[in-house]
Design brief:
It is built from 6 helices and no strands.
């Protein structure tokens, strides 16, 4: 019984650490001004409707954004847009986009690109 309680407490501690390490959506919203123009936000689909980030997995967004930051993925606009972001900024912005609801309505014939990118 003591082992079960210890394991339960350890699991709770690990989950708490992961929750804080994932990023702060409120701080991400403050930093996401440039992102919103193209990728949208609540009530605004963005310039590139098919590249909406709302509801996407934060971990996958962080990995992909860091690839733009490092130059592993080349895209002039994205490479310049993320150049000044810190690791914490990227995690916060990713958490912000994950906290948003996915788009309800899609234009006919268009699909929002998902996490498999």
């Amino acid at each position: 019984m003591k082992i079960l309680r210890l394991a339960s407490a350890l699991a709770l501690a690990v989950c708490s650490l992961n929750a804080t390490a994932a990023g702060d959506p409120a701080a991400g919203q403050l930093k996401a001004g440039a992102c919103v123009i193209c990728h949208g936000a609540t009530g605004y689909p963005g310039i590139f409707y098919t590249l909406q980030l709302a509801g996407r997995n934060a971990d996958k967004l962080t990995v992909k954004t860091n690839k733009y930051r490092s130059g592993k993925i080349l895209h002039p606009i994205m490479n310049l847009s993320v150049l000044g972001l810190t690791d914490q900024d990227v995690e916060n912005i990713s958490a912000y986009y994950q906290s948003l609801k996915q788009p309800i309505l899609l234009w006919p014939g268009m699909a929002v690109q998902g996490d498999k990118d």
